Amino acid sequence: MSRAKTSLAALAFALTGVTACATAPDPDAEANAQLQAAMEEALKPATPEEIEAANNADPLTKANFWAKEYSKNAENLDNALTFADALRGIGSNERAIEVLSEIMVIHPREPRILMPLGRAFAANGNPLGAARAFEEVAAIEPGRAEAWAALGTALDQLENHKNAQTAYDRALAIEPLRASTLANYGLSLALSGDLAGAEAKLRQATDLSPNDVRIRENLALILGLQGRFDEMQETSAGYAPDKVVEQNVEVLKEMIQQSPGEKAVRSQIAGQTAAADASEPAPPAEATGLRLRRTGG
């Protein structure tokens, strides 16, 4: 074989070696590609079917599902709102406040964040924080009755009844037939000493929502505070066990007899007021008792 042919054969062999090396798989690159693919799969948003299943699951399962969705994209407003709602569903109000506060940095003065934030503050025993959140919503969206009504409830919990009643007036000017607002307005009037005004508001609320146990309880109690025990008993009839109704009447009679005046009675009742969260469901009839109960919104 000539020298030229030998050189060409050597060159061909060398090129074949280079090609073989170039096409051989790189273990590190393959592992990185698999890791990248796994990360992309893990960060994919849930499908509509998965979301529907989670939302129909028990509260803890729902909260865990939305915790994962939130971790995928903490800047997504809808994910944050749904996660916070799920957290409130399992009583984790402090964590809900954290989530809503974090997303509000990205979406400042967003009413969709401020309303649930106010409710979470209220449920966590912070009516001042709740009032500030609701007040901001009312300033941004002054035509939103829900915000004014919630502000009234928070102010009542701060014993600022005068301003609470102004907030209720604003809410009712927008939605005059809002039964829950009328009921809470009635409680506010009762706690500030206007039993006749409280009765009027609660009767309006009862006409609009006759099956709301809490509203009827409050009306019955206001009637009892005015010494109208037969009417009190009649109002509660059918919505609470007879023994509970009779016990309420007797307890209230005793309170009035022992107290030096109406102001003292109101003070005792105010101490028993249930500052219910706006989303709290109405209690069953068996749970009724002698206390004022706030209604939603």
TrEMBL record:
Query: Signal peptide position in this chain?
Result: 1-24
Read off the Pfam families from this record. TPR_16 (PF13432)
Q: Which PROSITE patterns match?
A: PROKAR_LIPOPROTEIN, TPR
Record InterPro entries: TMTC_O-mannosyltransferase (IPR052384), TPR-like_helical_dom_sf (IPR011990), TPR_rpt (IPR019734), UCP035836 (IPR014596)
Disordered: where is this region? 260-297
The question of whether 4Fe-4S is a record keyword is answered with no
Q: Which superkingdom, per the lineage?
A: Bacteria
Q: Where are the TPR repeats?
A: 145-178
Q: Which UniProt keywords apply?
A: Signal, TPR repeat
Q: What is this protein's name?
A: Uncharacterized protein
